[in-house]
UniProtKB/TrEMBL annotation:
PANTHER family: LISH DOMAIN-CONTAINING PROTEIN ARMC9 (PTHR14881). GO terms for cellular component: centriole; ciliary basal body; ciliary tip. This is LisH domain-containing protein ARMC9. It comes from Paramecium primaurelia. The lineage of its organism: Eukaryota, Sar, Alveolata, Ciliophora, Intramacronucleata. Transmembrane segments: none annotated. It comes from the Eukaryota. InterPro entries: ARMC9, LisH.
Length: 482
């Protein structure tokens, strides 16, 4: 048995010639020509090969530790526990991915059967709009089908053509003039389907094309009448369609500037109104929050949020989530929006002039950090609190026992048990945030017993945490109903 194990261990060692080739390849790449020449000469004389073979035998007998290059190239290189877990997770994801694809194919099969059934009824119905509606359904179904057959990989390598964009805008305006709500929904959803289908690296350019073609007729008329009337129509499907397209446009700063053309905040006000009318966690509410969060990168929209009581609304939403299940997207984007609101000089000045309200906000946020809220929301709440840890709010901080409660939270959070590696990483991130945002300044030269808090660097950290660089992400939810 001992001999068998020895042979097995020896066979697992990489071949010396293989190692030589790796070394020569590296020397060539690094232009170590003299070293390479000497190395090759020694190999040809078989001096190195013999030495290595002898050395390996000595290692086996004495148990001396192998050089690291042997360990790196060992054929049976042991995998870490993390790598094994990642492989298992990858297999599970692949299995679920295939199940989703299969379900998608089955849905398309049912959809095609329904379209065929509607076609058979078309003649008897004698409805002029039915033919056009069916054609629109076919076009949209075909585009979604391409996404499925490509297994989720975007097919589009080109932007929507100028002609197609113009046709969509013309049809949208005509359906609006004819008060044909279903027609407006079809055009808006068709534009969004094109946005979802296009390759990620082209999405930013697509947003610019929608703006250049003035899809909402804002710049050409210098008014917001068209889009405001669309938002005012009390039809859930239309509100879903228009909100999802506005969310696409708001994905870039230029898009936000288009939606707030000439500093007019009417679209933001309408979105806030629709947001508050929706059932918590609904698809349309998610799109409204996506719009407001993305638009909040522009400081000029913040006064509109404050005066439309978005601070109170978001705090109430987080409070409800403690005892009621609310969609994770809503909580994540709402709390991120709150952080962006409180961060601005306008809001901080507003809170200074509203000391009682500032106290209420601080007190509620401090309560949240001890509640069972999701980690991303907790991070946003901590960021909000860091913005309020200023001398201007010293009275509120004292009344709320701000410093003591932050210290108690850090002490409590440091010892919580984590179920898995991901939870451990989240825990470390939260504690790192606290260390950066609430770390006491050096008071060794200060006779005062007051503990001051370091102010979080303005936009750098919040922008780093909510990274908006790279490819755009257009929201798409599993439970959307078109």
């Amino acid at each position: 048995m001992r001999g068998a194990n020895s042979n097995q261990g020896q066979s697992s060692l990489p071949d010396s010639n293989e190692i030589n080739e790796y070394i020569k390849e590296y020397l060539r790449y690094s232009n170590y020509s003299n070293t390479l020449e000497c190395y090759e000469a020694e190999i040809k004389s078989k001096q190195v090969s013999n030495k290595m073979l002898n050395k390996q035998q000595v290692i086996k007998q004495t148990g001396e530790e192998l050089p690291r290059i042997f360990q790196l190239l060992k054929s049976d290189n042991n995998k870490t526990k993390r790598e094994i877990n990642l492989e298992k997770e990858q297999k599970q994801f692949n299995k679920k991915y295939q199940q989703i694809l299969q379900a998608g194919r089955q849905i398309f099969s049912v959809s095609i059967n329904l379209l065929q059934l509607l076609h058979s009824l078309k003649e008897t119905a004698k409805n002029e709009n039915l033919s056009e509606t069916l054609e629109n359904y076919k076009i949209q179904l075909g585009k979604y089908h391409k996404v499925i057959i490509n297994e989720g990989k975007p097919e589009g390598t080109e932007l929507i053509t100028e002609q197609v964009m113009h046709e969509h805008k013309t049809k949208l305006l005509k359906n609006y003039q004819d008060k044909h709500v279903d027609g407006m929904i079809e055009v808006l959803l068709s534009l969004r389907v094109n946005a979802l289908q296009i390759a990620p690296e082209l999405r930013k350019n697509l947003v610019y094309e929608l703006i250049r073609n003035d899809v909402f007729n804002i710049e050409s008329t210098d008014k917001f009448d068209f889009v405001v009337h669309l938002l005012d129509i009390n039809n859930q499907s239309l509100r879903h369609a228009i909100a999802s397209l506005i969310s696409v446009i708001s994905s870039t700063l230029r898009g936000v500037e288009y939606l707030t053309y000439n500093g007019n905040m009417i679209i933001m006000e309408k979105i806030i109104k629709i947001l508050k009318e929706q059932e918590n966690g609904s698809v349309t509410q998610r799109f409204c929050l996506a719009i407001l969060q993305k638009a909040s990168i522009k400081d000029t929209v913040i006064p509109t949020y404050v005066h439309n009581e978005m601070i109170q609304w978001i705090i109430n939403l987080i409070q409800k989530s403690v005892n009621t299940k609310i969609h994770v997207f809503c909580l994540d984007f709402a709390s991120a929006t709150l952080a962006n609101i409180i961060h601005t000089p306008y809001t901080l000045q507003y809170l200074e002039h509203q000391p009682r309200f500032a106290h209420q906000v601080m007190e509620q946020l401090l309560k949240f950090i001890k509640d069972q809220i999701q980690v991303s929301v907790l991070m946003h709440v901590l960021i909000c609190l860091s913005y309020l840890s200023k001398e201007n709010f010293a009275k509120q901080m004292e009344e709320c026992r701000f410093i003591d409660r932050i210290s108690e939270f850090v002490e409590y959070y440091s010892v919580i048990n984590t179920e898995n590696e991901a939870a451990e990483i989240d825990k470390k991130t939260v504690l790192d945030l606290c260390a950066h945002m609430f770390h006491p300044k050096d008071t060794s030269l200060d006779n005062s017993e007051t503990l001051e808090l370091n102010e979080l660097k303005t936009e750098d950290r919040i922008r780093e945490y909510e990274n908006e660089q790279g490819e755009l992400i257009f929201e798409c939810f599993q439970d959307e109903v078109s």
